[in-house]
Design a protein that fits this description.
Strand content of chain A: under 5%
Structural class of chain A: mainly alpha
CATH class of the largest domain in chain B: Alpha Beta
Oligomer: heterodimer
Radius of gyration of chain B: 25 Å
Order of helices and strands of chain A: HHHHHHHHHHHHH
Largest interface: A-B, 29 and 36 residues
CATH topology of the largest domain in chain B: Rossmann fold
Distance between the termini of chain B: 29 Å
Shape of chain B: elongated
CATH class of chain A: Mainly Alpha
Number of strands of chain B: 20
Shape of chain A: globular
Radius of gyration of chain A: 24 Å
Helix content of chain A: over 70%
Number of helices of chain B: 9
């Protein structure tokens, strides 16, 4: 191989993709999802796009023409973004603690991450109402220690919603990051240090890029869960803070407005699909660098 | 003896100075009061079995571990309290520890970018260092697509790119197959000599240490047993451990009988053997001879030892023939001769051997 040719063409071989027989193993699951998941969603999408048998964007134009719906979308995206942000902030160091700890400590951390997943969201959300009430545990603690004089209003506020949602979705941020951190060779830090890189430089140029696939997956998980959460806002904030999920449910259950319900559900679906697609593109780009 | 050396030489010798270093892991002392002095431009190997503390010493010098006591000086500067990233001590790690998210060039540029070197200078330095290790055509490749030998070259280029004051190598050849390992050893030795880089090299492979080093520090149990040039290590091992670890040797257990004109006579199971040394009569000792010192036939004069032993086995190694003899208990006698000389010998034959008294080594039992 000549030096110049190698330098100019910069060959980067990609493995040839061929159909793996093992892919057939996904067939039963795929069929099930097609019938149980994709078909109803298509019907839902159809209901919003074909109001009277013919194709029309009428519902969407109505939907996006109403400033109330923009507020609903703002609420939904805002709550999801804040929740994702807090989960990332709290989850990133937790994932490292989990990956670097050993033995009993690691077992306890891992169980405390996974066990809450087995408790239903309704139960957890109710538990949070007890914690966040004006005479709740948190306020009693804060006033009792003289940190605040008056009990804070936490329940039925945005802050309370984000607080509760972060708690419930945290494991979905921690676990994907943990699974990536665990695979990073700790000697890369040593290598960076002996090359003259200080701790901050090493964090941003070794740790962050290598954990990026896990971070992207965690963000995609938490964001798509938070953008479509229904029980948590219903219990922790209520009617005052409508989101796409609560709006969809309300239009179907109380208003009997199928058109609005299917439209808002479809908007929500498109947001979720966009997030999943974006994260998969980002992950691919990251691992092919 | 040190006083007789010119001043120049003693200054050179102190380029890297490890002084009284003690290291404990969870209360267990793995290294106590260790000293080592390496001269500028010198290639020094730390040789020893796994767990002897050689990698610990390397990590202490690199700043990846902190010593409980003692000092480490480099070119007159006290490194002891300096973190690894301020020491300008390069390391080539055992499994290279290349950054998987960066290209070959990105890996080599890492240290330069961390030092905020201008991009134009980085480009030149990266190209220059990649060409030193003959990897310039791999500039934009992912390091994941490289073979073991190529990864090792990149690791060397990456470490050299920041112009370290000292290069540490932690068993860099252990993952390579034998043929490639020999090529890389000679290449790396040549490169470091050409660039006049002081290097400390960790290995458990005695051949590697003998081939590459200016001096070898044989380590055992957190101590340096002997620190000398390869020839002295081989021909004048300072302890039974060094003798056993570097090369093979015949070993005979015996009892010191007495010293006459500096020559000690030892009674062994195979007969009396004379050696240079002083041990009190009655003291248990071990006599050893390197296999190539043993010659076939009776001793020509009084300056040689002579033994008559039964041949147990013969192993043909191409250029050499190794003869194993029957000896009692823990004892072992082996001779390495030219294949033609031992052609007629068969296992079971009685063979007379001789070797110079001066080539006989004696250690406390």
């Amino acid at each position: 191989m000549s030096v110049t040719a190698g330098r100019l063409s910069a060959p980067r071989r990609k493995p040839r993709e061929s159909l793996d027989p093992a892919a057939m193993l996904a067939l039963p699951g795929t069929l099930y999802l097609l019938i149980a998941f994709a078909l109803p969603l298509l019907l839902l999408l159809g209901a919003s796009l074909f109001p009277d048998g013919g194709f029309s964007l009428r519902y969407y134009l109505e939907f996006f023409g109403d400033s109330f719906h923009w507020r609903v979308m703002g609420n939904t995206l805002g709550a999801a973004l804040w929740t994702t942000g807090w989960c990332l902030l709290l989850g990133y160091p937790t994932a490292f603690a989990l990956a670097r700890s050993r033995g009993l400590v690691q077992a306890v951390l891992l169980i405390s991450m996974i066990l809450p997943l087995s408790v239903g969201v309704v139960v957890k959300a109710f538990a949070w109402t007890i914690v966040l009430r004006t005479d709740g545990v948190l306020n009693q603690f804060l006033t009792g220690f003289g940190i605040i004089d008056e009990p804070l209003r936490l329940l039925f506020t945005e802050a309370g919603l984000i607080f509760g949602a972060t708690n419930i979705f945290l494991p979905f941020m921690v676990l994907p990051i943990y699974s990536v951190v665990k695979l990073i060779d700790p000697r890369l830090q040593d290598a960076g240090a002996t090359l003259g890189a200080g701790p901050v430089y090493r964090f941003f140029h070794i740790t962050v890029p290598l954990t990026m696939p896990g971070v992207i997956a965690g963000i995609a998980f938490v964001f798509s869960l938070a953008v479509s959460m229904y029980v948590i806002p219903s219990l922790l904030i209520g009617e005052r803070f409508p989101t796409l999920s609560t709006l969809t449910a309300r239009s179907y259950l109380y208003l009997r407005n199928q058109a609005l319900g299917s439209t808002s559900a479809s908007v929500l679906l498109m947001i979720a699909v966009a997030v999943v697609l974006a994260s998969s593109v980002l992950t691919r780009r990251w691992s092919h660098r | 003896m040190a006083a007789a050396l010119p001043l120049e030489s003693t200054r050179r010798d102190g380029y890297l100075a490890v002084q009284g270093v003690t290291k404990r892991f969870r209360g267990v002392t793995v290294m106590e009061n260790l000293d080592l002095a390496v001269g500028q431009g010198e290639f020094v190997s730390l040789l020893g079995p796994s767990g002897c503390g050689k990698t610990t010493l390397l990590r202490l010098i690199a700043g990846l571990l902190r010593a409980e006591a003692g000092r480490i000086l480099l070119d007159g500067q006290d490194l002891t309290r300096l973190p690894a990233h301020r020491r300008r001590v390069g390391v080539v790690f055992q499994n290279y520890a290349l950054f998987p998210h960066l290209t070959v060039a990105g890996n080599v540029a890492f240290g330069l970018r961390a030092r905020k070197t201008p991009e134009a200078e980085i480009r030149d330095t990266v190209r220059r260092n990649l060409s030193l290790v003959h990897m310039e055509s791999f500039h934009d490749r992912s390091v994941l697509a490289l073979s073991g030998g190529q990864q090792q070259r990149v690791a060397v280029a990456r470490a050299l790119a920041v112009r370290p004051r000292l290069l540490l190598l932690d068993e860099p050849f252990s993952a390579l197959d034998r043929k490639l390992r020999e090529t890389m050893q000679m290449e790396l030795r040549g490169l470091l000599r050409e660039l006049d880089i002081t290097a400390v090299f960790v290995t458990h492979d005695q051949d590697e240490a003998l081939i590459m080093s200016d001096r070898i520090a044989v380590m055992n149990d957190g101590r340096i047993e002997q620190f000398a040039d390869p020839t002295s290590i081989y021909t004048r091992p300072a302890s039974a451990f060094v003798l056993d670890f570097v090369g093979t040797a015949s070993r005979l257990a015996g009892t010191a009988r007495g010293v006459e004109e500096g020559v000690l006579t030892v009674d062994t199971g195979a007969g009396p053997v004379r050696a240079r040394g002083g041990f009190l009569p009655g003291r248990g000792v071990r006599v050893a001879v390197r296999p190539e010192a043993l010659l076939l036939g009776p001793a020509p004069d009084a300056a040689h030892n002579e033994l008559r032993l039964r041949l147990r086995d013969r192993v043909f190694l191409g250029s050499r023939l190794v003869l194993y003899f029957h000896a009692g208990g823990e004892d072992a006698v082996l001779a390495e001769v030219a294949p033609a000389r031992g052609a007629g010998l068969q296992p079971g034959d009685e063979v007379t051997l001789h070797w110079p008294v001066t080539d006989t080594l004696v250690f406390p039992a």
